[in-house]
């Protein structure tokens, strides 16, 4: 009797194991046969490539780490399993996925970055020293808060994020009188019931950028908000942003991207992508509207160095240090500067002091999203040449 039960148990186990082994074999063969994907449209990011096997990578263990990342990214059925996980987590009441909160009305918000104090201290010191050593060049700072800071009432129940307002105030205090400060927090607070942030993306909307531009006239030395007139119009209504891609939330949500054009006289521009050695006559790249990353319609994305020349009747030349938040802000500045030189410290490796002299810079502005600013360890290196 005991042997009969044992044989029956073995048969049941074999019945269960065989389908599992077959499925495992199918997945293994599929992963081998399918070509390596370089980019995920669903997640809007580059995928890990098959690592090269070397003696050094085996000894250090980096090969196995890289190969594990490769398998995770290239695993057949990854998108299906990812979607299933998000659905299960949501059903269980989870409102956070991969550092993204799903707030009220489906508003997605990135968690607030806690800065490395040593890196932050170096960055602020470098900006202050740059402004003081170029005292003849008016320098402004626009530090844009994240949605989780302004739309904190939209956070899911019991969710808590770090106090970004306090962090931003600390930067302002440390910079002191060396720069003209633009209070983006107060401006966006005033308009937080309007769509100043995308629902599915980590960027502010062009409307949010426009409100901050209107209030930055004094610091930037441009016309007041009563005199600055721009007309918005939509270039797409099917935008689904990076936070949706990162979290798996709100994948069916479609949003509008607007661009603002100055009213009055026609203004021509020439955008020189210096390192790429290409030029265009538009601030917008319409080909990006056919891709997942539609926000890249502004300037085509992020580049190390741009030189934007305009036909405006002015002698002022602006040097801007920025992250991607500035891409939709720059068009508001073109009616007021003959030339705008744009530096992204995450990619730029040249000499900043040489830029100032070569382009005869008359004004300077730092425009950053707070999360990027508090995590970026490149700013001080670019400004100091280290």
TrEMBL record:
Transmembrane segments: 12-34
PROSITE patterns documented for this protein: PIPLC_X_DOMAIN
Domain of life, source organism: Bacteria
Keywords: Membrane, Transmembrane, Transmembrane helix
Any Pfam family the entry gives: DHHW
InterPro entries referenced in this protein's UniProt entry, alphabetically: DHHW
Protein name as it appears in the record: DHHW protein
């Amino acid at each position: 009797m005991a042997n009969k039960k044992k044989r029956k148990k073995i048969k049941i186990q074999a019945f269960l194991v065989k389908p599992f082994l077959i499925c495992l074999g199918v997945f293994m063969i599929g992963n081998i046969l399918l070509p390596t994907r370089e980019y995920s449209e669903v997640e809007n990011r580059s995928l890990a490539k098959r690592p090269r096997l070397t003696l050094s990578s085996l000894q250090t263990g980096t090969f196995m780490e890289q190969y594990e990342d490769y398998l995770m990214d290239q695993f057949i059925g990854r998108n299906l399993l990812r979607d299933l996980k998000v659905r299960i987590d949501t059903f269980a009441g989870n409102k956070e996925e991969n550092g993204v909160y799903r707030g009220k009305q489906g508003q997605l918000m990135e968690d607030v970055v806690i800065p490395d104090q040593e890196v932050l201290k170096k960055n602020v010191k470098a900006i202050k020293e740059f402004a003081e050593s170029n005292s003849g060049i008016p320098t402004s700072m626009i530090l844009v808060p994240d949605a989780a800071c302004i739309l904190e009432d939209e956070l899911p129940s019991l969710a808590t994020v770090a106090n970004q307002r306090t962090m931003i105030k600390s930067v302002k205090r440390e910079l002191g009188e060396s720069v003209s400060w633009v209070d983006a927090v107060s401006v966006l607070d005033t308009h937080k019931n309007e769509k100043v942030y995308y629902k599915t993306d980590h960027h502010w909307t062009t409307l949010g950028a426009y409100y901050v531009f209107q209030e930055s006239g004094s610091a930037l030395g441009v016309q007041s908000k009563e005199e600055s007139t721009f007309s918005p119009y939509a270039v797409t209504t099917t935008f689904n942003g990076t936070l949706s891609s990162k979290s798996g939330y709100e994948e069916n949500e479609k949003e509008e991207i607007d661009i603002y054009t100055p009213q009055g006289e026609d203004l021509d521009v020439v955008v020189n992508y210096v390192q790429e050695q290409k030029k265009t006559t538009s601030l917008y790249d319409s080909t990006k509207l056919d891709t997942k990353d539609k926000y890249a319609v502004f300037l085509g994305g992020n580049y190390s160095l741009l030189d934007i020349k305009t036909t405006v009747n002015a002698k002022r030349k602006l040097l801007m240090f920025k992250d991607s938040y500035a891409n939709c802000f720059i068009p508001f500045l073109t009616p007021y500067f003959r030339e705008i030189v744009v530096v992204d410290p995450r990619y730029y490796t040249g000499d900043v002091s040489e830029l100032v002299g070569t382009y005869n810079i008359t004004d300077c502005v730092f425009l950053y999203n707070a999360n990027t600013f508090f995590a970026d360890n490149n700013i001080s290196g670019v400004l100091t040449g280290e």
